[in-house]
Write a structure and sequence with these properties.
It is a multi-pass membrane protein. By secondary structure, the chain is an alpha+beta fold. It has 3 domains: 1-215, Arp2/3 complex 21 kDa subunit ARPC3 (Orthogonal Bundle), CATH 1.10.1760; 233-344, no CATH class; 358-485 and 494-533, Heat Shock Protein 90, CATH 3.30.565. It is 60% helix and 16% strand. The chain has 15 helices and 14 strands. The chain has helices at residues 2-23, 26-32, 41-57, 86-97, 99-116, 121-141, 151-173, 177-231, 239-253, 306-347, 349-365, 367-387, 395-413, 437-449, 494-511; strands spanning 60-63, 66-69, 81-83, 258-263, 266-272, 277-283, 292-298, 393-394, 417-423, 431-432, 456-467, 470-479, 518-522, 526-533. The strands form 4 sheets. Strands 9-11-12-14-13 form a 5-stranded mixed β-sheet, covered by helices on one side. It has a 4-stranded antiparallel β-sheet with strand order 5-4-7-6, covered by helices on one side. A 3-stranded antiparallel β-sheet has the order 2-1-3, with helices on one face. Helix 5 runs antiparallel to helix 6 (121-141). The radius of gyration is 38 Å and the shape is elongated.
Length: 534
């Protein structure tokens, strides 16, 4: 019995070493991780099925109350059996992969054992299936424990129960019963101990590997946080300068030979040189097109293990969150600036004086119009203040602000200004940044038709049109005024240029286009400004 135990341990040791070597491979580690990456499931099943079959072939033939070690087992005689380590592969598959994996590997191992024959063939066919299910159920029950050192004791216990189950099945199903009893008496204890120790040994090695990866993961996490700490203040620079500086940091800290930032398939920033080996860090912001990506080039291919992949993914996520945070902060400031400029433009003494003076003159001659002006002024100021607290409002709300503003302006300008609106009511609930249409209308009045002799005409259009093959809302503000000096964001005055630039930056943030405002202007003929709402 002792000699049989020694022979069994030799075979178990070889099989455990083989399993551990394969467990170091990337695809095996990805599947065995309790995080549940199922990409390589069929490779895992194939390996442990082949492992169980190999364990059967490398076993010890038992016949006539004795055993005969052999380098390889072929067909088993009707009166013989096999002492083997098949249980080790089935139990490990169940403990690492769950019930489904243990069941599939058990079926393959059982069918193969049945094909070899012997008087215990039926029992040895059923046993691996039940062992795989048992190991999978234990894996689910003790899932958290199997991530700790205690998993070694649990693995031994599961292996012992699985092997004991096989011995019980042999006694229950094998005929004649006397031969089954003699077989279990000879191989029961050595095989059960050897296979239980084998399962436990695998988890000793597995835990060592887990601790090693945990240590490497901690180093990677520290590196990612250190890089993130260095890059956070850089995002506050202008975008081009920010990605250039961040590329330098990534190139130095990640020990690469080149770091490039690309956007829309075109390289913007280059630091170092390109090679055939690289990793990508994609910068994404929710509800927006991809911002761009950093590509790090290396002299040789880097280790592609779960820990490094998680580190690169976390670093890309940290950089994306930094960009989103800084952009959100910048948009808050832009919105505040827009609100301040709007209030300054509309609530300056001249504006209030003109409105109140008009109200005063209408009180006696046109009391109803005076009442309407006070109502529009109240509505305009209320919406002005409420919109300043929101990132997005509906086109309907912005249109109501425009109409309140125009009602005040038209009371003073009278027949000198005409306003036409062509609005698709289906689009009124689309969301846009506040203070986008109203400042364009204001710009058309103050810097367009105000200085034009004759009647000034402003047209507002909200229509659904095709853009890049998809239907989107298109907003157009057109006037027949004196025109801008150039068809860009720089107008005839600093106020006009700042207002247009502010609108463009906020539209770019929300919709992803670098230059969302389309401006056409001809001196003496007027200006047309358009933008898309996606």
């Amino acid at each position: 019995m002792i000699q049989l135990f020694v022979d069994m341990m030799e075979r178990v040791g070889f099989l455990i070493a083989l399993a551990f070597a394969f467990s170091r491979s990337r695809w095996m580690r990805s599947y065995m991780s309790y995080q549940g990456d199922r990409t390589y499931q069929w490779r895992f099943l194939f390996f442990f099925s082949a492992y169980a079959i190999l364990a059967t072939y490398s076993g010890v033939t038992v016949s006539d109350y004795t055993y005969r070690p052999a380098p390889w087992i072929g067909e088993v005689s009707p009166t013989a059996a096999i002492a083997n380590a098949r249980t080790v592969g089935v139990v490990i598959a169940g403990l690492l992969g769950g019930v489904k994996s243990g069941f599939i590997v058990g079926i393959v191992a059982g069918v193969h054992r049945y094909s070899l024959g012997g008087f215990v063939a039926v029992a040895c066919m059923i046993a691996p299936i039940l062992q795989g299910i048992l190991a999978g159920l234990c894996r689910n029950a003790f899932k958290k424990r199997f991530r700790k050192i205690a998993s070694v004791q649990l693995a031994f216990l599961v292996g012992f129960m699985a092997e004991a189950l096989q011995m019980i099945l042999i006694l229950a199903l094998a005929k004649p019963w006397e031969d089954a009893f003699n077989l279990v008496s000879l191989i029961g204890l050595p095989q059960t101990l050897a296979n239980s120790v084998g399962v436990a040994l695998y988890f000793v090695l597995y835990n060592t590997m887990e601790r090693e990866e945990a240590r490497i993961g901690a180093e990677h996490a520290h590196q990612a946080l250190q890089i993130a700490d260095m890059t956070m203040p850089l995002w506050r620079l202008d975008f081009d300068k920010a990605v250039a500086e961040i590329s330098k940091v990534l190139n130095e800290e990640m020990k690469s030979v080149g770091a490039f930032f690309s956007k829309d398939g075109m390289s913007w920033i280059a630091e170092g040189r390109k090679t055939q080996h690289w990793n990508d860090l994609i910068i994404r912001v929710p509800n927006r097109p991809q911002v761009g990506q950093f590509r790090l080039y290396y002299e040789r291919e880097q280790d592609d293990n779960p820990s490094r992949r998680r580190m690169l993914s976390s670093l890309a996520e940290l950089l994306s969150q930094q960009y989103a945070f800084v952009e959100s902060d910048r948009q808050t400031q832009l919105l505040a600036d827009a609100e301040i400029r709007s209030l300054q433009a509309q609530m300056n003494p001249h504006f209030l004086f003109n409105v109140l003076n008009t109200v005063k003159s209408f009180i006696r001659t046109k009391p109803e119009e005076a009442r309407q002006m006070v109502m529009h002024l109240s509505k305009f100021l209320r919406k002005n203040m409420s919109h300043g607290n929101q990132r997005l409002i509906t086109i309907r709300d912005e249109y109501e602000l425009v109409m309140s503003y125009l009602s005040l302006i038209k009371s003073r300008l009278g027949d000198q200004m005409e306003f036409y609106a062509e609005i698709d009511e289906r689009l009124l609930d689309h969301a846009i940044p506040p203070f986008t249409i109203q400042p364009l209308i204001e710009n058309a009045i103050v810097h367009g038709i105000k200085n034009k002799p004759g009647i000034g005409v402003i047209r507002l259009s909200v229509k659904e049109e095709l853009d890049e093959g998809k239907l989107h809302a298109r907003i157009t503000v057109q006037d027949n005024g004196v025109g801008l000096e150039t068809a860009g964001t720089e107008g005839q005055s600093e106020h006009a240029g700042l207002a247009l630039r502010n609108i463009e930056q906020r539209l770019s943030y929300h919709y992803g286009k670098e230059h969302p405002l389309e401006i056409e202007s001809k001196p003496g003929e007027g200006t047309t400004i358009k933008f898309w709402v996606r």
